[in-house]
Write a structure and sequence with these properties.
With about 130 residues, the protein is mainly alpha-helical. The protein has one domain. It contains four helices and no strands. Helix 1 packs parallel to helix 3, helix 2 runs antiparallel to helix 3 and helix 3 packs antiparallel against helix 4. It is a multi-pass membrane protein.
Length: about 130
């Protein structure tokens, strides 16, 4: 599991840096200030959760690959990046307002992912005490 989700986390971090540079240099004069802020929010959450995915992959490697909670945490973190950041990128670049309906589902995926990760890590710690 570490190889797969660790690689996804690193790829998402790479994409967040590339998209951040694109936003700062390529979109600065093309988007309104409001839409540039939306794009930057997508980049910020993309990077935070890319790092989160890397941490979950490391935790999964330590906890054990068969822990379904940590596996679902990784899956939901990955999905949340696409739904949350992806919808913000699409909204800012297209200015199609209905795309914003998708964003909260990504936020919910992040919340559940962090909760599952915390629970899984907590249970692994308590069982070794």
């Amino acid at each position: 599991m570490f190889n797969k989700y660790g690689a996804y986390g690193a790829i998402h971090a790479l994409l967040a840096v590339a998209l951040g540079a694109f936003g700062a240099h390529g979109l600065k004069d093309r988007l309104t200030e409001e839409m540039l802020n939306v794009f930057e929010t997508g980049v910020r959450y993309h990077m935070f959760h890319a790092i989160g995915l890397l941490l979950i992959a490391l935790a999964a490697d330590r906890i054990g690959k068969n822990d379904q909670r940590i596996r679902w945490a990784a899956r939901l973190m990955h999905l949340g990046i696409f739904l949350f950041s992806g919808s913000l990128y699409a909204l800012s670049l297209s200015d199609v307002k209905w795309i914003g309906i998708i964003t909260p589902f990504g936020g919910l995926a992040f919340i559940v992912a962090w909760g599952l990760a915390a629970y899984s890590i907590w249970k692994a710690k308590s069982s070794s005490d």
